[in-house]
């Protein structure tokens, strides 16, 4: 049940936005993400060329394919890192609206407390992202399996970013947010797969983060009201029920 709830969540977000006519919330995230994708591709290609160096080997067919694989992996990681930082206020407003439509209201955290936690958690996420980037680079250089590991780590980070919105509104700490994902393993795994599939649709990637965040919010609300589950606030992000 949890796996399929998570798998369907990003696409459920698409359906929810369409059903309630929330397209105007996507305009600014779309423009931001389009710029980020362009920058991510350029960055990935430049870094890939530096890794391959120059000479006849660097211009071979295999090297060209390797360049684009490296560019895609590095570009995806760059996009996953930068996108939540730049479009978070707009996506947050969209997910708040989703909660209001479902519940009639949404939890609120004090402005200064929310701002402080947002900065702190953003810095901690950046550390996680940079660690993942170094790991992917090292594995690519040493074993050649960095691409697969990078895709896996990116999927996990997508899950964190999606569920970050409803959890942050309930005052969950950084560790509590990760704990929620671990306490709902089926849902988290399904969401990783579903969000990754949505991101792989070329025209949809510019709005995929917003759709996925809405879907994560809806999935979270399902677990919050599921029989036998506990209310998911900051204390429960530490003690919540498993999926």
What order do the helices and strands follow?
HHHHHHHHH
Beta-strand residue fraction: under 5%
- Summed over residues and divided by their number, the pLDDT gives a mean of 78
Q: Helix amount, in percent?
A: over 70%
How many structural domains can be distinguished in the coordinates?
A: 1
Structural class computed from helices and strand pairing = mainly alpha
Overall body shape: globular
**Sheet having the most strands:** none
The end-to-end distance, rounded to whole angstroms, is 8 Å
Please give the number of β-strands.
Answer: 0
Give the C-alpha Rg: 19 Å
Please give a structural write-up:
It contains nine helices and no strands. Mean pLDDT is 78; it is low at 230-243. The protein has one domain (2-22, 88-239). The protein has helices at residues 2-20, 27-52, 61-103, 111-142, 146-169, 174-183, 185-199, 208-225, 234-239. The chain has 243 residues and is an all-alpha fold. The termini are close together. Helix 4 packs antiparallel against helix 5 (146-169). The protein is globular, with a radius of gyration of 19 Å. The longest helix is centred in the middle third of the chain and has 43 residues, at 61-103.
Per-chain topology:
Blueprint: H1 2-20, H2 27-52, H3 61-103, H4 111-142, H5 146-169, H6 174-183, H7 185-199, H8 208-225, H9 234-239
Helix pairs in contact: 1-7, 1-8, 2-3, 3-4, 3-5, 3-8, 4-5, 5-7, 5-8, 7-8
């Amino acid at each position: 049940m949890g796996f399929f709830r998570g798998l369907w969540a990003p696409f459920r977000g698409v359906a929810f936005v369409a059903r309630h006519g929330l397209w105007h919330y996507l305009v600014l995230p779309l423009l931001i993400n389009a710029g980020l994708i362009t920058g991510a591709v350029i960055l990935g290609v430049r870094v890939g060329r530096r890794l391959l160096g120059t000479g006849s080997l660097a211009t071979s067919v295999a090297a060209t394919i390797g360049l684009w694989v490296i560019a895609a992996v590095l570009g995806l990681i760059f996009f996953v890192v930068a996108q939540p930082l730049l479009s978070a206020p707009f996506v947050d407003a969209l997910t708040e609206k989703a909660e209001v439509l479902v519940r009639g209201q949404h939890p609120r955290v004090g402005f200064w407390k929310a701002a402080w936690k947002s900065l702190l958690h953003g810095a901690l996420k950046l550390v996680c992202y940079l660690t993942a980037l170094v790991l992917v680079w090292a594995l690519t250089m040493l074993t050649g399996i960095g691409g697969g590991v990078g895709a896996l780590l990116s999927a996990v980070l997508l899950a964190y970013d999606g569920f970050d919105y409803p959890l942050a509104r309930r005052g969950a700490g950084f560790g509590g947010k990760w704990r929620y994902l671990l306490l709902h393993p089926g849902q988290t795994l399904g969401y990783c797969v579903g969000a990754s599939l949505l991101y792989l649709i070329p025209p949809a990637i510019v709005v995929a983060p917003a759709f996925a965040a809405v879907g994560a919010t809806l999935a979270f609300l399902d677990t919050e009201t599921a029989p036998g589950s506990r209310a998911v606030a900051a204390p429960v992000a530490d003690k919540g029920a498993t999926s």
